[in-house]
Structures are given as structure tokens and as C-alpha cells.
Amino acid sequence: MKETTLAMSVWRGDAAGGAFRDYRVPARPGQTVLDVVTWIQRHIDPGLSYRYACRVGMCGTCAMTVNGKPRWTCRTLVGTVAPDLRLSVAPLANLPVVKDLACDMTQFFDKWRRAEGRFQAAPGSAADFAVVPPESAARQAADAGIECIGCAVCYAACDVVSWNPAYLGPAALNRAWTLVNDVRDGAQAARLAAVAGDAGCHACHSHQSCREHCPKQLNPTAAIAGLKRLATLAALKGEI
Amino acid sequence: MSRARAEALLWLAQRASAAVLGVWVPIHLVTIVAAVRGGLSATEILERTQGSAAWAVYYAVFVLAVSIHAPIGLRTVARETLGWRGPGLELATLAAGVALALFGWRAVAGLVMA
Ligand code: SF4
Ligand code: SF4
Ligand code: FES
Question: Are residues A94 and A110 in the same domain?
Fold first, then answer.
């Protein structure tokens, strides 16, 4: 029987530019996009650069643009995204390319820092265990966004990031929202000031592309709407 | 005022004016369609609006809401599609708002003053 092959088109290049190169790869049942990229590197082109670590959807390092859409490649089956056996793979949009399929994530994580995306314990909170009822509204709001794996799929899917390079983006704002809802945190005013305005939550158009593409089915749009509400209230009260 | 605060308040002003427009625009559309279909001439329309405090307030508020809403939206479009930022854009936004308000209120005056 003749072996079925995938028609692959893989972006090769660096920050200065590049182009798609075509490869033919044997099709296998249950194959993921990451499997295919790895096959090309192992069998055809050892110089192909890409990034991954866990291969089970936990680390968030393997995201690429697959047939025009940002996806986590280790959990994306070729059969579901390329029933016609044609597949293009490119680096994520909205991030500088290091080489081939690997992006420079520096600006993405710098924006988490700019959004005050780290826990800052309220003074005295270390004296005793904090009691956070699981059913409380704040805990549930934090829970809804906490499973982010930092894959930048949402960031690549967001038009506002491409229009406004300073925009913090859905992942950093989603992270900030989980902390806004952390009752043990003591940096709320600074965080709301950091996420307000033209580079922050108020720039979001709520068009939900981030939510549509997030592989963890998180809803950064809802998180950002929550930030808009609280940051606008803080602005009215003159707190930011 | 901090930049973050100013941006948040502009955002709020645009949402609040949108809420007003959400009510005002349908009333305006229904009114003009009813007037035209009812066969009212320009003179007959003016007879009804001139001296009417209700129409004066209604259209004055309409103009105010437009003058707040449109320039803030245009400012965002200018930033996102033209990459225009800075003091020049703020001045242009303000000028657009003032121009809309002045021309609009002049039209309202023409409608309601005898
Ligand atoms: S909803 Fe907001 S953050 Fe999400 S993709 Fe749209 S503009 Fe970006
Ligand atoms: S919010 Fe979703 S898409 Fe965005 S970085 Fe987190 S897991 Fe990835
Ligand atoms: S390799 Fe870790 S999430 Fe895909």
C-alpha cells in the first residue's frame, strides 16, 4: 500500500525575514503537529529550530501558528486541523522571531511584570493561615483564570497587540485579574493603576479572539472586563 | 491627573455617552421616519419644534453625547490604525469634540428658536 504523506509548509528564517519551505512527512494515526515538526528535524532537516518541553500541554512552550491560527502544537492533532493532509506551520504572530518556529517571549513576560502579575503579600498576612472560602466570589473569579500555562496563544491572536505594541495583552491582564481576586494580596491599588489605560484593560475591544483560541479554554475577555470595572471605579474615586 | 486615570475616565465617558445614544438614536430615527411618512413639510416640522423646550433639550443632549462619543472613538481609531499618539492627537480630539458640539448646537438653535 502506498504510504500517505502530509504536505508540510514550514516557515524558515530569523528576525531579518524568511519564507515557507515544503516538506513531505509520513502521516501516522494520532500524530500531533509537534510530532510532525520533530519528524522533520530528526529525518530531513536537523537545522530546524523550534521550542517545546513537556509535550503534554502543561509548559506552554510549543505554541505556533498552524494553518493560520495560533495553537499549542503538542495537543493539536493533525487529523483535526488538516483533514486534507496539508499543513502550514509558522512562528506565533505578535512576537519577534528568534529562528524558524521559535519566538522571543521576552516582551510577553515583561508585560506580566508590568501588569503587576506577581503575588505581593499584604503586610502581616504571613502571621497566620489565610482562610479563603472556595465558594467565595473572589476565589471563584481567581480560579477561572488560574490555569494559564503562559503559552502566548491568546497574545498572538489579539489584534490590539498588533495595533498597539504597548498593550499588555490578554494573558498578562488575565494574570492580574487572578491576583486582584486574591484576598491575601496587598498591592491592589498599584496593580489597578498598572492595568488601566491605553496600554491596559481599557484598550481591549472585547472581541474575544483570546478566548476563542486559548487552549485551556480560559476567558481573558471576562477577566479584562472585570479589570475595566474595578480600574474605572478606582479612577472615579481618584485612587489611581 | 495620572495618565491611567485620564484614560479610564475617557473610556467611561465614551461608554456613558454610548448609553445615552442607545436611547436617543432610535427616538430620533422613529421621529424622522414618522414625520416623513406622515407627509409633514419642513415648515410643519418647524412649527412643531420651534419654541418646544422638550425638543430643545432632547437634541441638545443628543449633540452633547455625540460630541463626547465620536471624538474618543476617532482617537482610538487614529492610535490603532495610524499609530498617531501624543499631544497633537489630544488637541485634534478636543477640536473635533468642540466643533461637533458647536455645529450641532447651532443646528438645534435653528430648529427650536423662532
Ligand atoms: S478580547 Fe481583548 S484581549 Fe482578547 S483578543 Fe480581543 S482585544 Fe485582545
Ligand atoms: S490565557 Fe490561555 S492562551 Fe493565553 S497564555 Fe494563558 S493558557 Fe495560553
Ligand atoms: S510542549 Fe508543553 S505545552 Fe506543548
Answer: no
